[in-house]
Amino acid sequence: SQELEQSPQSLIVQEGKNLTINCTSSKTLYGLYWYKQKYGEGLIFLMMLQKGGEEKSHEKITAKLDEKKQQSSLHITASQPSHAGIYLCGAAYYGNNRLAFGKGNQVVVIP
Amino acid sequence: DGGITQSPKYLFRKEGQNVTLSCEQNLNHDAMYWYRQDPGQGLRLIYYSQIVNDFQKGDIAEGYSVSREKKESFPLTVTSAQKNPTAFYLCASSRRGDSYEQYFGPGTRLTVT
């Protein structure tokens, strides 16, 4: 069964609009990693969240981890074409020394 | 600059042939990983290594083999036993432990016909 669910699977937004994507775990997380991928390329690390209720921001991207440490959201403010791509969340679980990845959120930004 | 390199970017092979994908890192990371990515499937772990001369099977190890003779290198061999080898292969590395982010290479797209 899939431990991580990402939603929505894909979304199209107009440039300048805000967007939010989600990553939900079936188990309590030790840590949650957000990555971005352009088609056919490697993953670029965005942010890592570890504490319940934690929130981190970088430029126009904000990621949050809920208090129960089972759900994370990634919010992009005033989206730009450079924000287009696939966003993947990776989960670290207690007692497990590897990351489990979701299937990704595909984001398309229309100029 | 430190980073991870994968070569080649594109690889074509005939069915029945083994093929080896290269992954090199100069980040001084102990841990290295191989993932396979298929459309709509996300990343699936093939093999990982926490230290030189040691490695473990991931979720889809059948038909693949690895070696870790040097800290910097973690080559992946796709054998003829792999039923559906055509995919995008990603290598990653991290500091040892489960709380450090993984750094990814640019990937190798393997096509087997």
Quick summary:
With 111 residues, chain A is mainly β. In chain A, 0% of the residues lie in helices and 56% in strands. The mean pLDDT of chain A is 93.
Label this structure with key terms.
heterodimer; A: 111 residues; mainly beta; 11 strands; globular; B: 113 residues; 7-stranded mixed sheet; 4-stranded antiparallel sheet; 51% strand
- List SSEs of chain A in N-to-C order: EEEEEEEEEEE
Distance between the termini of chain B: 36 Å
Poorly predicted runs of chain B = none
What level of helicity do the residues of chain B show? under 10%
- Categorize the overall geometry of chain B: globular
Percent of residues of chain B in beta strands?
Answer: over 45%
Mean of all residue-level pLDDT scores of chain B: 93
Q: How confident overall, as mean pLDDT of chain A?
A: 93
Report the sheet with the most strands of chain A, covering strand number, pairing sense and barrel closure. Answer: 6 strands, mixed
The coarse overall form of chain A would be globular
Major sheet details of chain B: 7 strands, mixed
Distance between the termini of chain A: 38 Å
Assembly category: heterodimer
The number of helical segments of chain A is 0
Topology, number of strands of chain A = 11
| Number of continuous helical runs of chain B | 0
Element order, helices and strands of chain B?
A: EEEEEEEEEEE
The most extensive contact between chains is:
A-B, 23 and 28 residues
Estimate the strand proportion of chain A. over 45%
Count of DSSP strands of chain B? 11
